[in-house]
Design a protein that fits this description.
single chain, 180 residues, mainly alpha, two-stranded antiparallel ribbon, binds zinc ion
């Protein structure tokens, strides 16, 4: 390798895909895998697929927002039903405890919603498991509770399962395209 060649190899070029600087010697961009040394067709194909992936991600980010809002919605339902149960059951010694429990669960769901952007699968999965545990736990303590709000319970589980599918897709695309 002569001097000119080594200068050439350490000079940097701007990656047309992600805008990061890459060494001339690099065959693919270390940030986004853009084929710096590929044929014109390779490069066009890469950008085309990345555009496609970007629009996928845009779509999935929207799905993710929906999933997050579902977690917030469930939090809202726990607050709402907590106060309803408290108002209708004030004489019961458990009234305050039930209200506090509902509010704590609501806070957990708000927290999961807030963290959803960073770890979508984890958050939605946790929300789903938590929700299932609460429903099953209530059913064991009070079998009559199964039918109470059954439509809401089924809807919440379906919404969270749909959210989980989207969250998985988002994480898969993020793994494949770290620059997105
Ligand atoms: Zn790049």
């Amino acid at each position: 390798m002569n001097l000119n060649e080594s200068i050439e190899n350490t000079a940097s070029v701007k990656c047309p895909s992600c805008g990061m600087f890459a060494f001339n010697s690099e065959i693919v961009c270390s940030q986004c895998n853009y084929p710096l040394k590929g044929t014109e067709k390779d490069q066009k194909d890469f950008l085309f697929h990345q555009d496609l992936r970007s629009s996928d991600l845009y779509h999935l980010t929207n799905e993710l927002k929906k999933a997050r809002n579902r977690l917030y919605f469930i939090a809202g339902i726990f607050v709402f039903s907590g106060f309803i149960m408290y108002a209708t059951n004030q004489s019961s010694p458990d009234a305050v405890t039930t209200l506090i429990l509902n509010l704590i669960i609501a806070i957990v769901f708000v927290g999961l919603g807030g963290y959803c952007e960073k770890r979508p699968v984890l958050c939605i999965l946790t929300g789903l498991v938590l929700f299932a545990v609460i429903v099953i736990g209530n059913a064991i303590l009070d079998p009559a509770s199964i039918v109470r709000g059954i439509i809401f319970k089924v809807a919440a589980i379906v919404l969270l399962i749909n959210g989980l599918t989207s969250a998985r897709e988002v994480e898969k695309i993020r793994d494949q395209y770290p620059s997105l």
